[in-house]
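pinned: reference chain
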Amino acid sequence: MRRGRALAPVFLLLSATFAGQAQGVARPPAHPVVEQYRRWANGPNPTGDPAFFPIQVWMQDPSGVENGVKLGRAYPALGVDFGLGLWEDEWWYLRREGLLETDWRVYPDPKRVDEVLADREHARNYVGYLVVDEPDMNVAYGDTFHPDMWPSAVLARSNGVRAKDPSRPTFINFGVWMGTPGGGVGYGYIEKDYETDMRTYCQAADIASADYYGWTHPDRDGIGAYRYGEVLDTLRKWCGPDKPLYGFVETGHPHTHGEPITPDQLESAVWNTVLHGATGINYFAHSFYPDGGGEYASLVTRPEIAARVKAVNARLKSLAPVLNASSLPGVTARSRNGIPVSVLHKEALGSRWVLAQTDGDASVPRSGRATVELTVPLTSGKAEVVGEHRSVPVRNGRIVDDFGPYQVHVYKF
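pinned: its structure tokens
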């Protein structure tokens, strides 16, 4: 989503096209995605540090001021590492001044690649390039065809940026045609075929995300936290097992209709992306309203959201070595009352870890209280429930535990 532009309307009833997800199946094995970052000497994590879990926010002006604090300082205080996009217009230089004054770090517009390369003194402040936003949606925007948004054109643009500056990754955010299971129904102006186009788009992105706001979408049928995990599953299908893929979660009112996201909904959405393999988080702080007004920093202007984001970010960062480890098979989870469960199995820091969330799916879009049975990589003994000051028994390779709606438990063996 570009700054100041309302989201393109989606003329599909997406809920009708989403297939129900398998309940409680762990993500497939993959190499630690964090290793990919070592390719970029000036990127967001040049050493491939497994203790770093990247968190960023969409299109924020570091020189902007909210609550008496420049945004380039306000966001790091909440655990937000990077700004995704430092956009190109006549005010670029003011935003750059704010960036350097606050020492924040961003993905600038690739039109500024020569300027970035020349600014060796501040190399750390530029961690990559936001090449384009929603090319899958904008190749045919309204009745207008944009050939520069075709997959081959986006790939050529990205390759040009890589050739000039191989020390920083290219980042592309996609829309619903790329990022949802039913995206092919609405995709127009196909260059080759739908699947080939999606894979070509993903080749252009060293790091990718896609936006579908599953809690605040104006179509209220089937909204829920599980929508965010579906986006990650769909992106992984197009992008392969090793590419860094980030979850995208709103912090305000991203449509002109619908409801603002609540703190509980936000937390459930973030964790659902993680349980489905997100290797980083993007927050979308822009808000739009039926009267045509807009507000662009809802992450910091909504106190209840700022507090929850800070807490969620801190928990993600505390678990970074676990989240960055390879996903393993062999763990399932099933509730006794039919509430769907997402589960993740990891090995890190000398222990095994299982993360589980009662979330939902297309057939049961809302979570609820549930008793969950998990198969785990331990025949008997106890598992620590991290952060909850308790442990649970393991009997015959299973844990039985109670969950609240959308609750996440982290088990350590």
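why pinned: The CA atoms of residues 344 and 395 lie 20 Å apart. The longest strand covers residues 341-348.
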